[in-house]
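Technical appendix A lists one of the benchmark inputs used to test multi-chain prediction within the project. The record comprises four sequence entries:
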Amino acid sequence: MESILIIEDEVDIAKLVGFNFERNGYLVDIAHDGREGLKKILENQPDLVILDLMLPEIDGYKILKKMQRDTRSHSIPVIMLTAKSQIDDRLKGLELGADDYITKPFSPKELILRAKAILKRNRVTPVAEDFSLGPFRFDKNALAFFINHEALSLSLIEFRLFLFLCQRAGQSQDRNDLLKFVWGYSDEIHSRTLDTHMKRLRKKLGKEGSFIETIRGIGYRVRQPE
Amino acid sequence: MESILIIEDEVDIAKLVGFNFERNGYLVDIAHDGREGLKKILENQPDLVILDLMLPEIDGYKILKKMQRDTRSHSIPVIMLTAKSQIDDRLKGLELGADDYITKPFSPKELILRAKAILKRNRVTPVAEDFSLGPFRFDKNALAFFINHEALSLSLIEFRLFLFLCQRAGQSQDRNDLLKFVWGYSDEIHSRTLDTHMKRLRKKLGKEGSFIETIRGIGYRVRQPE
DNA sequence: AAAATATGTGACGAAAACGTCACATATTGA
DNA sequence: TCAATATGTGACGTTTTCGTCACATATTTT
């Protein structure tokens, strides 16, 4: 279960917020001043901190600063609670590493939503799904293509076609198979569509275009890099 | 053992062909009309289909079309059986994705030979790199998208955007993150570009578009299917 | 209820993607 | 060397994609 630490000196607000988080399935802890808050952060390392900026003992900025400096806390996300007027303060807070803020008065619902968003964002570590060959890299999640670490935008068909060829580098692919894979059918009829796409690809690839070899009578091949 | 499905309404021919394949070490199944044939294709996913074009219930073209659109069948090779005269029909069949044809009357020996050739060619199946979520499937190599096994063509941006959301299903992604991922920047300026793309996506997805939820004040989320 | 804010949508024009054709060029085999 | 065959390429028109705007609708706040 994910844990939330609420650092808020106004007891009513703390209770209200705490209640709402509990109702949404979070483990809630409350600290009523800055000193206590910081102690609990470092000791319990909650998954998220809701931090009022105006606090007795140690104010919110000081907490943010300390959190930043300490490895036990510097990656814990923080949502600030601020009064409506404190615009500069919010900016200062964001600079100090807070992830979000919400102005008083606020709706508990919105706070929960933001909290969820932040918690989940911090949880995702999407697996990179890349395919690399020589100077080429395909990011299959981003649908992005790189050549020597530089982005190069390929059209959908170009991406498909070149990925197909690169994944089978060293093997020549015959025209029918290419047509079938990329277009879903093989017309058998010889239009120059495939050639045109190869031409465009080679042009986009610049000097690396020479990786694409023509296998006369068969189709194309991407040369296996050394 | 490799399995062959023969879809042929003339019982004698079906038996003859079936016998010959069995003698050559294949697992044979027979369907006597189109409806039955299609059902068996989808259920059993044979390694090869021998398909008579003239069939009761559902004709051969319809079967080819449906096979193409359905992920469970679109890569299963097909050899058509056609009458000598039906030249146009053969072309039509090849366009629809059939791999080969043979004209009646034919020698079982020739049919077996062609079948062997096709099966051999199809044996190399590169590893599919798929991401699935509920009714959705992304083929990251083919850059193809499927909804309930049916292909649906998405534009590059739509593919990127929806894959991103689906891979983080259940978590709301805020507008900035989406902009940043899909467009590489987040201008902060509120144009309606993102919304427009979401609208188009929802429309293309049809009734499954309801999987995309709007999180007001945050961004969007793809609902976690049960 | 009215105002303020956020999201949804149809329409439009610009740009990119795409397929095809005619013709150029290259390769092969006789 | 000369056909025959295969691939390369520029140009063109069509279709799709894309971003933006104005305005509609929905939700929240005052």
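Residues 155-158, 191-193, 196-197, 200, 216-217 of chain B lie near DNA strand D (CB under 10 Å from a C1'). Chain B touches chain A through 32 residues (CB under 8 Å). Comparable benchmark entries are summarised in Table A2.
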